[in-house]
Amino acid sequence: MERVGFIGLGIMGKPMARNLLKAGFPLTVFNRSRAAMDELARDGAIAADSPMQVAQQSDVVITCVSDSPDVEAVVLGENGILAGGRTGMLYIDNSTIAPATSRKIYKALKAQGMDALDAPVSGGDIGAQQGTLSIMVGGDEAAFQRSLPILQAMGKNIVHVGAAGAGQVTKACNQIVVAMTVQAVAEALTLAKKSGVDPAKVRSALLGGFAQSRVLDVHGQRMIDGTFEPGFKLNLHRKDMNIVLQTGKELNLPLLGTAQVTELMNSLLAQGKGELDNSALITLYEFLAGL
Hints:
Helices cover 54% and strands 13% of the residues. The chain has helices spanning 13-22, 34-42, 51-56, 68-76, 81-84, 99-110, 124-130, 141-151, 166-194, 199-207, 214-225, 234-250, 256-270, 281-288; strands at 4-7, 27-30, 46-47, 60-63, 90-93, 115-118, 121-122, 133-138, 155-162.
């Protein structure tokens, strides 16, 4: 069984790493804050002092961090994965970053005899905890086949989409659909409430018809309850939407719906709500509706 390293133990990364431990993989972990490492160390993981040390002790290294600059720093920076890697090592990035950054890292690692996959995930904190994430993968076929036993410990719907960067393009598409569905659910439930109709009953009715979706199910309930503890933070979703818009600009592609929902997110971030779950989008609609 391959030795696995995991870097980035946040809302998503920590339960993903724990699922690797449950599957029996020897695991080395690193995180900027110590508490999450100590927690996993009590479960059997080895705590490392740097990404370089993780790479030195692992056959496969996974990252799940916030943004493109973070991934570049962890992989290419001083004491990074590249510095500790060796020929034959496999790198898997579960972060959501720009496709162009994934291609840059792929080339840098391939030049040193290492393999790289961009493999962003979808399914939120619930999917991470239950090991049911959807994982969309870009990179070489042989590296994908090697990665499957590891990815199967964290997810259920695992698709090799294409060459390097294709996983991140797929995640950009995913984030468009999720963001605009969150917006649609927020708008619909606000209309119901403003009309004097019980939003909870509206949600129940819609879940039985063509409008049903995972967003309506999970986020719709959060909107009705007014509980916005983050499963996926609004500021991170806005970051992802900026990646989508930048990718669209590179392709001269207008993304009108993406631009609109991103501006709504910007409004909430300006109100200091970036740490809330992305379902908090309904609070803006309720404010505008005078509710």
